[in-house]
Amino acid sequence: MNAERLRRFGRWVTRYIDEPLLGSVVVLMMVGLFVLYSASNGAMMRVYAQLVNMGVALLVMWIFANIPPHYLMRLALPVFVCGVILLIMVALFGQVSNGARRWLSLGVTRIQPSELMKIAVPLMLAWYFQQYEGALRWRHYLVAALLLFIPVALIVRQPDLGTALLIVASGGFVIFLAGLSWRIIIGLGISFLAAAPFAWRFMHDYQRQRILTLIDPMEDPLGTGYHTIQSVIAVGSGGFVGKGWFSGTQTHLDFIPERTTDFIFAVFSEEFGFVGNVVLLILFLLVISRGFVIAAQATTPFTRLLAGAITLTFFTYAFVNMGMVSGILPVVGVPLPMISYGGTSLVSLCLGLGILMSIGTHRKFSAT
Amino acid sequence: MRPSSGKEFRDTLTEEQQFHSRLSVLSAFVWVMLGMLLLRFAYLQIWQHEHYHTLAEENRISLVPRPPARGLIVDRHGVVLAYNDTVHALEITPSKVTDIEQTINELGTIVDISARDRRRFKLLLEESKRYESLPIRSRLSEEEVARFAANRYRFPGVEIKPRQLRQYPLGAAFSHVVGYIGRMNPKELEALDDADQLANYRGTDHVGKSGIEQSYEALLHGTTGIEEVEIDAGGRAIRSLSYTQPVAGSNLKLALDAGLQAVVDKAFGERRGALVALDPQDGGVLAFVSKPGFDPNLFVDGIDPVSWAELRNSPERPMTNRALNGTYPPGSTFKPYMALAALTLGKRTPEQVTLDPGYFMFGNHQFRDDVVGGHGVVDMYRSIVASCDTYYYALANDLGIDAISHFMARFGFGSKSGIDLLGESVGVLPSPQWKMQRFKQKWYPGETISIGIGQGYNAYTPLQMATALATLANEGAATVPHVVETIEAVGATGPSPRGASAPRALQLNPAHLAVIKKAMIGVNVEGTSAMAFQATSYMSAGKTGTAQVIGIKQGEKYEAGRLREQFHDHALFIAYAPAEKPTIALAVVVENAGFGAQAAAPIARAAFDYYLLGKPAPSLPAKGTKP
C-alpha cells in the first residue's frame, strides 16, 4: 500500500525529468563539490553553502521541467520586458561595485538583472520566431537582432562585456538556428572584422588590457596577466594524471586567484591532470549531446530554438571558462557550469536545463 | 502585426529541415571547439608539462640565503680587533614605501634618528636598488625596539631586523692594518661575479674594503648557507624544505701585538707618519701603524657623506695607508746598506778612511755634508755612527749606480715585500733603466752621489725599510712579512699556520754583517740616537735618517699655514733589538718632523720598552677582550 503510494509519488516526481540529463548534471555537481573542498583548503563552509545552492538549483530545475513549454511561451514577452525595464533601472539607480554598475538594490537583497537576461533573451527570440513560423522573412531577423541589441547595449554600458558577449551568443544561436541566411552571416562577419578597430576605440581601458593580456600575458605579469600566467602554470604543471587531490601547489599556496569560482578549473586541472580534463570534457559533452537530441526532437519552432539555444549557451559557458583558464581566451567573468562556487549561475543554468527537460518530456504529452 | 491567416502557406517543413541542418553545423562547431580545448590541454599538460612543472616549483620554492658569520680578527695574544655584534637594525625597503621622507620623519618620533643617520641613508638610497632593505638606524635599544613594535602597523615597508654589525673595538689605531668592511659597490659586485662568488654572497651586502678585511675577504666571509623554503603567493614562508648550514668565516690570528700597536699609536701623538715593526726571524708583523688613522666603525653600516668628505678632504690624508703606500727617501738610514755593499763588493775595508772636509766635489759641483767643516778622518764605523755624508758621496761614486741598485734590490728595496695586504706600493729603486723608462732620459753620474745618502730618486715604503732591516738583523736571511699568523677555519681540527716561507739567504759574509751591526749598535750608544736610548737594559741597534722634502706635490692645495711645515724634512729611524739576537726590527717615519733622532727614535724606544720589557701599554678599551 505504502510502497504503491511511494511508487506513484516517485513517478509523479520524475514525470518530466530527463534522466540522462539529470544523471550527467548530478555527476558534474559531485565533481564540483570535490574540487571545491580542495579549492577551499578543506573548509566545509563553502561546501555546505554550495550544497544548499545545488539543492535550490535542482528544485528550480524540477519546477521548470514541470512547466509545459506553452506556459513558458506566455511568459516570454513579460519576462523580457521586465528584464529590460530592470536594466534601465540599473542604468539609472544601480549600485556600483568594482567600477561597474551591475546591481539593483531591493532593500533586503540585490539582484543583477543581466543574469535574468541570459534566459530571457533566448526565450523572447524563440517566442518571436514562433510567431512567424514558416513565413520568416529577412525583416524578422532584423527585428530579432534589434530585440537582442537593446539589452546587450544596456549591459555593455554597465559595463559587463563578458555577460554581454554571452547574451549576444545565446541570442545569436537562436537567430542562426532560425535560419538566418549564410550570405548575411558572412557579410556580418566581414563587417565585424572591419569594425573591430573602431570598437577598440570605444572600449574601456581594462577591456583593452584583457585582450592585450591574452595576446601576451607576460606583458603585465603582475597585473592583468597574473591570473592567466598562474592558471596556465597550474594546468600545465598538473601533467597527465595530476598532482592529486589536495596536492596542487598552485592551489594551496594561493597562486590561483578566484580559485573557488571562475578559476576553479585551474584547481581541477592541476590536481587531476589531463585524464581529469578528458573526463570532465566527456561529462560536458554528455549534457550538450543530450540537449542537441532534445532540440532535434522538439516539435515547435519555439521549443527547438529554445532547446538549441540553452544547450549552446551551456556549451559556451564551459568553453569560455576552460579556454580562459587554459590561456586561449581573455579573462571574462564566466563560471564553469555546475563546478564553480556560486548560487546565481548554478540556479540560472539549472533553470535552463529544467526548460530543456520540459521541452524533452512534454513532447510526448503535448505533441498534438 | 500578428499574422492571422494562411497557416497552410507556411513552409514549416522546410524550416524544420533547415533547423536540423543548422543544428548539425553547430554540433560540428561544438566538437571542433572542444577538440581545440583538448589539444590545448594536451599541449600544456603533456607536451609542455616539464616547463610548467618547473615554473610551479619556482613559484613555490624560494631559496633563502643564510649568510655566514664573518671570521674574527684577533692579535697574537687573542685581543679582539674585529668581531660581529648582533644588533637590531631599523630597515626601510624603499620600493614598499610611498613617501620615504615622510616615513623617516614619522619614525623619528619613535626612535632616535640623527641628522647623520639621515645623510647616511640618503647616500645608501642613491647607491642601492629600490627593493633592497636599507638600514636607517642600527643599534636600537630594547626600548626603541619595543616602541617600534607597538607602532609597526603604521609603517609598512619598515622592519626591525637582527643584523651582524662589524665592530672594531680598538678603533683608529688599527684602522689601516685591520681595515674595515663596507657596503659592496658595483665594481666589487662585478669582481665577485668574475670570481664566481656571487652566489656565495647572496644575503651579504658588506665586503672588506681595506687592510686584512679586504686581503683576507675570501677566508673571512665563509660559505653562505641555503634554506629551501616553501612560500605562498604572498611570499610568506610556509615551511622549510631543506637547510644547508652556513659555514662561518675563518678566524684570523695576527702576528700583530695589539699592545705594541697601541704604544706606537700613542707615541706618535698627533704627528703624521708610519711605523712597521717585524719579527726578523719569521717576518711576522708586530706593529703596523699609519698616522693619522680613522674610525673604521664609521663604515660598517654606510658612512654618512659629511664624515666621508671630511676624511677624504683632510690635508692630513687619514685614508692613506702610509706604512704600505707612503714612499719616502730613506735618507741616512740607507747608509748601513751602502756600507754593506762596499764591503761585499770589495770597494772598502772597515778600516779604510775617508777625509771629510765638509763637502764632496763632483766635477765642479759641491755636495755638502751637514756638519760644517766636516767630520775629518772617518772610517766605516764612524761614518755610520756620526752619519757622515761625505763618506757616502765618495762611496756612491766609487760603486756606481748599477752596483748600488743591484745590491739594494737584494734587500727588497724597490720591489713588493710580498706582505699579505693588498695594494702594496713598489717605491723607487733608482737605476739607469728605471730613469729611462720613467723619464726617457739617460742617467747622469752626478745623480749617483746623493743616492749614496738615501736621497735623490730613492723612495721606499716604511714596510720596505722595515723588511730590509729585518733581513739585515736576521743575518742576511730574508723573510716575507705577514700580518696573519694562523687561520682558524671553523670545523677544522686546529689552527693552520699561514705557512711562513723559509727565509731566503742573501749570501752575505757574516764578518761584513758584524761590522755593520757593530756600527749600528754604536749609533744608539754613542751616535746620533744615543739620547733616545739612554739607560736601556737591552742592547739595541739603529740608524737615524732625515729625508728632504723636495716640494709640494702636484694637485696639492696651497695652504699658507701648513706650507712651512710641509717643507720640513721627514724624520726617519730604523732599529732592531736586542742587538745580539733581534726579536723586533722596525722602521719609523715621522712626516715633516725634522731630525730623525729627535722625532723618530723615541717612538722606537717606546716600542722596544714595551715589547722587550713588557712595560704596560696605554689602556686598551675593555670591550676589546670580548670574544
Please give a quick description of this structure.
The complex is a heterodimer of chains A (368) and B (627). Chain A is mainly α and 368 residues long.
Main β sheet profile of chain A: 3 strands, antiparallel
Q: Report the span from N to C terminus of chain B.
A: 103 Å
Give the structural class of chain B. Answer: alpha+beta
Please estimate the helix content of chain A. over 70%
Shape descriptor of chain A: globular
* Beta strand count of chain B: 23
Whole-number count of domains of chain B: 3
- The proportion of residues in beta strands of chain B is 15-25%
- Please, what is the average pLDDT of chain B? 86
Radius of gyration of chain A: 21 Å
**pLDDT averaged residue by residue of chain A:** 87
Written description of the protein model:
The complex is a heterodimer of chains A (368) and B (627). Chain A has 368 residues and is mainly alpha-helical. Helices cover 74% and strands 3% of the residues of chain A. In chain A, helix 2 packs antiparallel against helix 3, helix 4 (69-93) packs across helix 6 and helix 5 (113-131) runs antiparallel to helix 6 (138-157). The mean pLDDT of chain A is 87. Chain B is an alpha+beta fold and 627 residues long. Chain B folds into 3 domains: 59-86 and 164-254, Penicillin-binding protein 2a (Domain 2) (Alpha-Beta Complex), CATH 3.90.1310.10; 94-132, no CATH class; 258-295 and 323-486 and 505-552 and 560-620, Beta-lactamase. Chain B is built from 23 helices and 23 strands. Chain B is elongated and about 145 Å long. The N and C termini of chain B lie far apart (103 Å).
